[in-house]
Amino acid sequence: MGKGGFDMARFDIHFFAESLKRNIRCTMVIPAETPSDAFLEGQRYKTLYLLHPGHGRGEDWLDYSFIEQYAEANKVALVMPNLQNSACRDLADGDRFLHLVTEELPSFLAQVFPLARKRENRWILGAGIGGFGALHAAFTHGEVFSRCAVISGMTDLSAFIATCPANYQKLLLNTEDGGPILSFKGEDASVLPEFLFASGSQDRNRGQMWKLAETLKDKGGEVELKVLDGNRGWEITDALMPHLFDWFIPEGKPLYE
Fold first, then answer.
1. Which residues are CB-neighbours of 204 under 8 A, at least 6 positions away?
2. Strand, coil or helix: what is 17?
């Protein structure tokens, strides 16, 4: 059962994605208090791209968390593509999930809907392997998103890959954009988005995330670390929500683009 707000317009989008050479599905919600003020002339909504955990789907964010209610309160649009188990990477079989998230979707959706066009008003959030994907997108396409948040993320996909079917294991181990270990190889992290790393106090992957965070900070990156009571799962996501949206939209910042 969903936990969404009452004043959000929900769209189930099906379109042909050049990145994947097939029709795909993407879920999106946009604030819409009343028909008269839902889409004001020239107004664009700040936009948060959400990357789902492994073995999940885009709509899981709406079904299992309260993120829609916080998006409603802060007038933020949510974009939730189905990325399968790709971790937002360009796979060896030609499926370019990274290209989809960082180039095709932002361009296509901003043409069709009143979504933010400016980097400062576009953010990305990932959980689990979606956190790996969000970081990968931030490292390789820092010009697209101004802020990147990761919940219960990971920098090593090896254990997750072992849970996938054999044919998909081969794809994930032989991607077009790096192996199963994520790292920032650049010298200057100050040009990257700002980062928020959040993990449960009992999360077994917290060590690898914190190690990456320290590397980013040592190279000039802006990184905030947040530890929440618990392990992993959607309860950690919900516990982070108040702080997360305060971080995305600091006090005094305009709600709209």
1. none
2. strand
Q: Domain extents for the chain? A: 8-248
**236 token code pair:** 């950690």
Q: What is the C-alpha to C-alpha distance for residues 237 and 70, in angstroms, rounded to an integer?
A: 12
Q: 22 to each of 27, 80, 108, 168, how far by Cα in Å?
A: 17, 17, 15, 18
User: Are 100 and 91 contacting, i.e. CB atoms less than 8 angstroms apart?
Assistant: no
DSSP code per residue over 68-103: HHHHHHHTEEEEEE--TTS-S-B-TTS-BHHHIIII
154 touches 88 (CB < 8 A): no
**45, 109, 143, 179, 231 from 140: Cα distances, Å:** 24, 21, 9, 14, 29
Closest CA to 60 of 75, 88, 80: 80
Q: Is 185 exposed, middle or buried (0-12, 13-18, 19+ CB in 10 A)?
A: exposed
Pick one of 3.30.2390.10, 3.90.79.10, 3.30.160.100, 3.40.50.1820 as the CATH number of 8-248.
Answer: 3.40.50.1820
pLDDT band at residue 36, thresholds of 50, 70 and 90?
low
Distance between CA atoms of residues 184 and 106, nearest Å: 24
Does the reported pTM lie above 0.90?
yes
Highest mean predicted confidence (pLDDT) among 42-46, 199-203, 251-255: 199-203
pLDDT value at position 165? 86
* β-strand pairing of 8-17 with 22-31: antiparallel
